[in-house]
Amino acid sequence: EEKLQRFGATLAGRELEIFRDRIIADNPVTLKALGDRWSVCRERVRQLEERIVTRLRDHNLLETP
Question: Residue 48 belongs to what H/E stretch?
Answer without folding.
Answer: helix 42-58
